[in-house]
Amino acid sequence: MLVFSRKELYKRKDVQKLLNALKEGKINRITPKFILEEGLRYLDAEEITNLFKENVKTVLEELVEDGILVKELLETRLACPKCGSLKASLKLVCPACNSPSIKKGEAVEHVACGHVDFETVFKTPEGGMICLKCNSPISRDEDYRRLGFLYKCLVCGEFSKTPRRILTCGECESEYNEDNGIPFEVYGYSVNESRKEIIEVESLDLSPVIKNLRTSFWEAETSVILKGKSGLEHPFTLMSYRPGSKNTEETNIMVDVVFEKNGVDEVSVISFFSKILDFNVKHAVLVGVPSVSEEAKRLGESYRISVLECSKMEEVVETLWNTIKPIVEEEASKTFMEVAGILETSQALKNLLKEEPQDIAKP
Question: Hey, where are the domains in the chain?
């Protein structure tokens, strides 16, 4: 049984937008994109939440901590050891003399003398091949051996298959390599399948109900934790009352929204009833999603609890307001009659005071 709680995290508009996008399937997996001038950005999440870069990362990590999202290591990049930037360019240098003047080409070896150079160097203007070391013509395939693509240092002449790699930071221009660069783990985020029901519940937005109540001059609070007559604290989805009457029996409305995958049963009704017994509550409303058993409805009726059934969370706001609205209107009517009675009494007193005193005849 999941009761709508709306932790502080879930009350934030940015988190609400992200939860709704996940619930509606607009995004299933949140992965970063590397932008040269800005580094790693979670663009989809930024667009949905209207947050930027590090703020989005903070939200994602908070949802991971709360179990809503799981994060997966996608790759590890190297960051600059001096400034931490991921912006870098790769420079290749000769492993023998550290010169950056190296060139890549397809190399061949003259079998007879062992000379190695690029194939283009062996070729003659006439289209043949000749070894520049021993000046021997190369006319047969057996005279040379192909070595594949190699790097040649133009300073010391050394050939190598794997030149040294040096990274130059695009921010501070420091040079570093794989040995002294800082590993930077890049993560993607996806919905925790075992916690999808929580997204369903916590993405509920009751602000339209709150707005309607306040327009009707009622106070309303969501995700409240109240101390009962017993001294115990109880959480409720919503509490509403007329200004100045928070703790009176005549006006309090207590609401719980409960999500139960297999349907809300008597256990949820009993749990809710045990909570409202600890308070002075006139109107108790329990909303069950996605279904409510007939036994639970009957039990709710015997406990004087309005048990509502919604097939999905999107129906909760309208269903709840349609139930609360008559209560609000009835209380408004009572208030009007009370005010009218007070005004009428006040006017009668004024009229009485205005009447001139009558003379009393002397004997």
Answer: 10-85+184-189, 95-162, 204-337
Does the predicted TM-score (pTM) go above 0.90? no
CATH number for region 10-85+184-189: 1.10.10
Q: pLDDT-derived band of residue 244, with 50, 70 and 90 as boundaries?
A: low
Pair of tokens at residue 317: 């706001």
- Percentage of the chain lying above the pLDDT 90 cut: 53
Closest CA relative to residue 132, chosen from 155, 157, 149: 157
Confirm whether 10-85+184-189 and 204-337 share one CATH topology.
no
Per-residue pLDDT reduced to its tens digit, 50-99: 988 888 999 999 999 988 899 999 999 999 999 999 999 999 999 999 99
Q: Average pLDDT of 30-49?
A: 89
- What dotted CATH number matches 204-337? 3.40.1350.10
Q: What is the pLDDT confidence band of residue 195, given thresholds at 50, 70 and 90? A: confident
Q: Is cis: bond before 290, omega within 30 of 0?
A: yes
The arithmetic mean of pLDDT across residues 7-15, rounded, is 77
Check pLDDT > 80 for residue 332.
Answer: no
Q: Record the tokens describing residue 22, joined without a space.
A: 């996940």
Question: Nearest to residue 283, comparing CAs of 313, 317, 260, 250?
Answer: 250
